[in-house]
Structures are given as C-alpha cells and as structure tokens.
Amino acid sequence: MAKCGECGPGYKTPLEAMKGPREEIVYLPCIYRNTGIQKPDYLATVDVDPKSRTYCQVIHRLPMPNVNDELHHSGWNACSSCFGDTTKKRNRLILPSLISSRIYVVDTGTDLRAPRLYKMVEPVEVYWKCNLANPHTTHCLGTGEIMISTMGDPSGNGKGGFVLLDGETFEVKGNWERGSKVPSLGYDFWYQPRHNVLMSTEWGVPKCLVNGFNPADLEKGCYGGNINVWDWTTHELIQSIDVGKNSIPLEIRFLHDPDASQGFIGCALSSAVHRFYKTQDGTWAAEKVIQVPNKKVEGWLLEDMPGLITDILISLDDRFLYFSNWIHGDIRQYDISNPQKPKLVGQVFLGGSIVKGGPVTVVEDQELECQPDPFVIKGKRVQGGPQMIQLSLDGKRLYVSTSLYSGWDKQFYPDLIEEGSVMLQIDVDTHKGGLKANKNFLVDFGKEPHGPALAHEIRYPGGDTTSDIWI
Fold first, then answer.
1. pLDDT of 135-166, one tens digit each?
2. Domain positions in the chain
3. What is the DSSP letter of 324?
4. What pLDDT is attached to residue 7?
5. Handedness of CA 338, 340, 343, 348 (dihedral sign)
6. Is the distance from CB of 179 to CB of 162 less than 8 angstroms?
7. Distance between CA atoms of residues 24 and 3, nearest Å
8. What is the annotated localization of this protein (predicted)?
C-alpha cells in the first residue's frame, strides 16, 4: 500500500475514503439564468466547518465571464480512479454549462478557499469536434482523461454522446463513443471497468426543456425512459434497458465497491428507484425496488403529483441509499443491505409543494395522514424542495440544496426565484438509520450581493460519494 505522500489523488478504497478528514468547505455553482438578474453564474465557496468564524457563509465567489450559461453539475480532473499515480492531482474543477455548452476549468489547487478561472472551452470546440452540446456529468478516467456526457446536438435535438478532454491541456480530443449507435437522449453516467461497462441515462430533448416542462412533450418523445449500456473497451452501445416510457431516469449510481455488478437509478417522473444488475448470461437488467406513490391533488399542474426523484446517492460503505423528492418535499434514507429489498429507515420533509397553507390541496395520499408543515429554519421559510444532495465521507452529514434547474424552478417554485435557494444539512443516524435537520445550519443564497441566486450541486475539494469512482 502506498504511503502518505506516495500516492495519487483520492483514496485506495471506498472504506479508506470514509476515514478521510471532515469537510471544511464545499463548492456550489450558483445560477442567475431565468431569475431576471443579468449577472454571470458563479462558483460559490461555502464554509462548513463548525469551528470557523465564517461557518455557514459564502466566503468566495468566482463569477464566470459570460451570462446565461446555466452552470449545473461539476467534476474533477482527477479522482480515486487515478489513485497510485503520483503525477496526478485533484486541483481542477470542471464546470460544464448546460445551456451555453461552454466548459470552464477552475483552478482549486492554488487556493482551495478562493478558486480562480484557469481555462475556458468555447461551445464551438464541442460542436465542431464532437457534434455534441449541452454537457452534463463530468467524470475523470483512470487514463487521466476527462469525460463529459451530453444531452444534445448543436441544434438542440437530443443526443447522448460523450466529450473527451485532455487531462493536462483540457483541449477537446473528440468523442468517446464509437460505432453507429448513439442514444437519442443523454444525461448522467457511471462506469465500472471490472465489468467492462458504462451506464448512461436520459433526461430530455434540450430544446423541449430549455424553458420549462410541458406535459404535451411527453407524447412527442421528448423525455427519456432507458438505461443505456456501453462496452467500456470498445466504447460501443450494446444494450438499452427500458425502465418505463417517460419515466425520466436521471442520476445513476453503481455500488462503490469496484467489484459490484449492480447499482440504482432514480426515475424522476415515475418516482421509482430501479436496481440494475448483471445477469448470468452477461447482459444487464433492471427491476423496480422502490415506488413513491403519486398524490391526488388540486391546485397543481397535474391531478396526479409525482414525488419527482431528482437526486440519488449511495454511502461509501454501500449500506444506505438516499434520494430527494423535489416536488413532494422529502428526503429518504433506505437500508440497502439487501439491495433487492431496500428498507425505509429515515425521512425528513424540507419544503415542497404539498405543505399546509399553500396553493395545493392533497385529496388522496397513500402515505401521509395530513399535509406537512412548511419548513422553517432560523426564521426563514424554505421555498422549493430538497434537490441536490451530497453525503459526508463518513456518512454522518447530508448536505442539501433546493434548486433543480432554472427553467423548472421558475415554473414549479416561482417563490424560489424571488427568494433564492438554500443549503441545509441533515444529521444522519448511521447505526439504525434516521434523518434530522440540523437547525443550526443554513446557507441562504437569497442574500447574495447581486440578488437571490439558485445554488445547485455540492462538491468537496477532497472528493465525495458522487464524483469518485474506484477501478
């Protein structure tokens, strides 16, 4: 085993990562698109160290050079997939822009607490070299390269391809995928080299969802319903697993154990979690293991209100599964010791569309006896619902932000646009399960210098449960 100082970025194993230091700062992209504020999106650095005098404060803001980018998800230039390679450092954060298709590379190595812009990849580079657009998920590869999934082509049509960046120069090298088959839609991905596989998911056609959600688009084929299976060696699409028409499968997570041949995917519109797994004949399959029932409502877009599972993650010891119901307003914790039969062990409501006193009346509910109270913390009523989640390495703290995507925020939670999003922290019982909001933790992005902002995905400088892949 490599001694301290003789290894590359990250940790040797997921269980070693759980012993890593407590997070002291986090990074979040903050969005101004669709808010009426004509300012660039920016990367916020937030102090999450309880011992610090600036605890729960934004201590640095790095504005991008352009407006209306829609920063969304981020990833690292190197992670635990490069463990053992002493030439690699986790010192660049890759920030793709979902709408402009611009890719920013941020230097976090020079000053962790005050990142600076290192490089900018213009959209034309992605268009011309890859015929792709709308980049979403970034993962580093063991080769040192960086791979980014996409949702569309330069014309706004759906296209599930992958952009490869050079890990040193950050130049666009071209497409990762090969062969004639390319999915009509794309979104998230995860890879597992020991099983020679990459799995990708499907959100929707960019030009259909750019400004909001129209139920009429569901029957036009604008939204996804497949897990796409790729051969890791040949880079070819070899299988598509149907998890339900218009189910909108979003975040996909393999178990962290690199030997594992299974994982979970959260489907937004169908509000279901599927377990995907390798079969005896070497193909892949999926089975629904969790279903969040729709609620019959009045005063909302549809009569049947889905939970809308928008983010999902797995603890590093592969013991617990977490996901957020952005519309219903709750976060759930499941014991997945038996992956085929997840057991609900924790739940907490943090806002949402069904709170008492709001415009929505629940007329039929299979789970709750009454509508939950609005969530108030430090005198502030939280608008929106729990969305992006990130778990501490030791699994004891779950961080939550409330913005999904500015076009959908504006449509489903107009008060979120007016008041800005928040970041919250949930205390996790890692023994028998259980979730409880930390009433001393609130980061209010409604009080930003240029006006209320929409903070999205949460990243730790030292890696986390959704950016690190062990090979």
1. 999 999 989 999 999 999 999 999 999 999 99
2. 14-455
3. E
4. 73
5. positive
6. no
7. 24
8. Nucleus; Cytoplasm, Cytosol; Membrane
14-455 folds as Methylamine Dehydrogenase; Chain H (2.130.10)
What's the pTM value of the predicted model, to 2 decimals? 0.97
- Nearest CA among 147, 175, 170 for reference residue 159: 175
Pairing relationship of beta strands 295-298 and 284-291 according to DSSP bridges: unpaired
Q: Which amino acid is at 315?
A: S
Output the six-digit token pair for 15.
């269980």
Q: Are 445 and 416 in contact (CB under 8 A)?
A: no
Residue 230 pairs in a beta bridge with 198, 237
Distance CA 85, CA 83 (A): 6
Tokens 């791979």 identify what position? 147
Q: How many CB atoms lie within 10 A of CB 134?
A: 31
Please choose, from the candidates 47, 48, 20, 67, the residue with its C-alpha nearest in 3D space to the C-alpha of residue 114. Answer: 47
Alpha carbon 220 to its chain centroid, in Å, reads 26
Q: Note whether 396 and 420 are within 8 A (CB).
A: no
Model pLDDT for residues 174-201, shown as the tens digit of each residue = 999 999 999 999 999 999 999 999 999 9
How many Å is the Cα radius of gyration of the chain? Answer: 20
DSSP assignment of 355-400: -TTSS-EEEE-SS-SSPPPPPEETTEEPPS----EEE-TTSSEEEE
Residue-level pLDDT at 211:
85
Indicate the pairing of strand 309-314 with strand 162-165.
unpaired
Low-confidence stretches of the chain (pLDDT beneath 70): 1-6
